[in-house]
Known about the structure:
The structure holds 2 protein chains of 2 kinds.
Chain A: H1 2-11, H2 30-63, H3 79-107, E1 115-122, E2 125-130, E3 135-139, H4 143-148, E4 171-174, E5 179-185, E6 190-192, E7 201-203, E8 209-213, E9 219-224, E10 237-243, H5 245-263
Parallel strand pairs in A: 1-5, 4-10
Antiparallel strand pairs in A: 1-2, 2-3, 5-8, 6-7, 9-10
Chain B: H1 2-11, H2 19-24, H3 28-56, H4 67-102, H5 110-129, H6 155-183, H7 196-227, H8 241-258, H9 261-275, H10 282-295, H11 311-323, H12 325-339, H13 348-371, H14 373-379, H15 383-413, H16 419-446, H17 460-489
Helix pairs in contact in B: 3-4, 3-5, 3-17, 4-5, 4-6, 4-15, 5-6, 6-7, 7-8, 7-9, 7-10, 9-12, 9-13, 9-15, 10-12, 12-13, 13-15, 13-16, 15-16, 16-17
Amino acid sequence: MRIxxxxxxxxxxxxAFAEWETNMPRGVTPTSEVxxxxxxxxxxxxxxxxxxVFGAMLYxxxxxxxxxxxxxxxxHESTKVEIIWTVIPFIILVGMAVPATKALIxxxxxRDSEITLKVTGYQWMWQYEYLEDNVTFFSKIDTESNxxxxxxxxxxxxxxxxxxxxxxxxxxxxINTKVRILLTANDVIHAWWVPELGGKKxxxxxxxxxxxxxxxxxxTYRGQCAELCGKDHGxxxxxxxxxxxxxxxxxxxxxxxxxxAKNK
Amino acid sequence: xxxxxxxxxxxxxxxxxxxxxxxxxxxxxxIGSMYLWFSLIMFFVGGLMALVIRAELFQPGLQLVxxxxxxxxxxxxxxxxxxxxxxxAFVGLANWQLPIMxxxxxxxxxxxxxxxxxxxPFAFTMMLSTLFMDSGGPAAGWTLYPPLxxxxxxxxxxxxxxxxxxxxxxxxxxxxxxxxxxxxxAPGMTLMKMPIFVWTWLITAFLLIASMPVLAxxxxxxxxxxxxxxxxxxxxxxxxxxxxxxxxxxxxxPEVYILILPAFGIVSTIIPAFSRKRLFGYDSMVxxxxxxxxxxxxxxxxxxxxxxxxxxxxxxxxxxTMLIAIPTGVKVFNWVATMWxxxxxxxxxxxxxxxxxxxxxxxxxxxxxxxxxxxxxQYHDTYFVVAHFHYVLVPGAxxxxxxxVYYWLPKWTGKMYNEGLGKLHFWLTTIFVNLTFFPMHxxxxxxxxRRIPDYAVQFADFNAIASVGAFGFGLSQLVFVYILxxxxxxxxxxxxxxxxxxxxxxxxxxxxPPYHSFEEAPKVD
Lengths: 264, 525
């Protein structure tokens, strides 16, 4: 396990983050891409509306002031105008609803997956079960981060490798494969979220939720629990290594051998 | 002269003096003032908690508090600000303003009024006392989601009882508001002639009565789950943890509008006054407020898009949520149309009202983005959401409350505040509020979840900026306190009609108004 992890790290260098990142990542799955495109579409629409509305306000503030001797106009109602600014926003909303609904239907379609990964949230770690290949392991924050994050640990967290975003056992998934992820929890509600793989879903005791990923690019993708789950909610990272299919099956093989060796 | 007569008149009442005056008072102005002072104190208590949060988040790594205490701070900050600062401030404004805006001597149910206020200090004493217990205060977030909230220690029943008392206080206050508005208007003041602030409060009061008992039901079920072996929300016993979220947000979404509709009323009062022009589209403002209130009951699940609802449910709640943009847009357009070709001046209340429109609209834009379910799967439970609701609550609700205080303070006290200091307070507050909350959009989009005491280092820079902003914002509010005390020290000099563009019955009374406001009902035509 350890050796294969190190191997993977060497082949796929850690994703670099810009320090002043201001936007959502476009990500590497069809679902993260539609989410990003929709996000940008709505963002630009609101920017245009904002420029128009705030522009009108600013013009008014500059020119329609008493100190310039501007006399107040007398108008105070117009049914026609009210209808116009009810109908136009409605049309814009329909224009937004159509792509949003299409994207949503695509995101919720978990059929025809090749691999099923079951994720169970615990306070405060994740359990991963590869249902077809019968591989199971727990994944929790790595020791280096876990030491550094203690109150007044004296460690400069800037020197810690992927501080709070590194785990002992990472998830390995094949690229260009539709993977269905089943989410549940054993104690309280958690949420499994890797931004670059698309949206999050809650892991809820008594429920099995579904999402799917189809990773297009090999790499290491990092995320963390996104639903308040107690005192160590901030310390439940998720790391996904995306590798080619042959490498994935090689990894599965190693896991099975290790398991066999342990049981012996 | 008239002030002298009123003062003589007051002497007939033989009201108790000292502390007993405030404990026994049934006067709407005394109670309104107590609500407002209480709210100000809670604003600072909740603000201190926010500063603990921001101090810890100033740098990555844990420097000041342990994660458990951090969670108590986020939970308490929300409860204190929502139930202790914003809601009582609006009720205080309602107490002061409703009678003098509709031409009534007092609220319809004065003893009930006293009771609704005096529940609050006890409720908050109980809630805040949990912070000093061995197991600490509630730490599951103000939304109290089970099963996590059921893991709470000794604070749990205290918090629930405090929430019950707050709900009781709100319901009693709302009943009083409805009784006053429906029964005590001056002759000739038909519903469609009421000041817009009165309208927004009438609708808010109905929202309170409809939603508060739902919260009471939800937290009572939590209580029985914890202590009496029921399994409403416990999956292992056949219960459903998601059901709590549905019930909670059926209260929670109307609650959001309880926190903003009176603010709409305030801004709709102040913008016309300083534009020297009548409010554009009064009727459509009333209809828009009513539509927002009705829609607020069918959008609750947009707070929980990630719980794994059926596709049809997600689409339904996405569409209804998007619809809210229409009446809200109508309001913003009407405010801009009111300013358009007016004759504007920019005193402190107007500055806060204009900032409200701009910054609230920015919060509305991010709200629209959050309504898009596919994108919300990314935004949900990140700092993007934190940025969104702070934009609608701080430069939204809180700015409107500040605007209202500056606008009516000379009426209430007969004393004019220092305009220069007021403007200083406005600019400091506006700059720091954006410095605090705007960077939160960025870290949220970049992947920082909310309610975490420590974060990965790529979020460090914007968090440092937000923390600097938060401390600046907190310190700027000391200017506000100084302005208040400085004003109260002054002599009574304000005119009856303080603002030349102001309209409404309250400006026909003396400043400060007589003890029983309108002893004889004024005529409205």
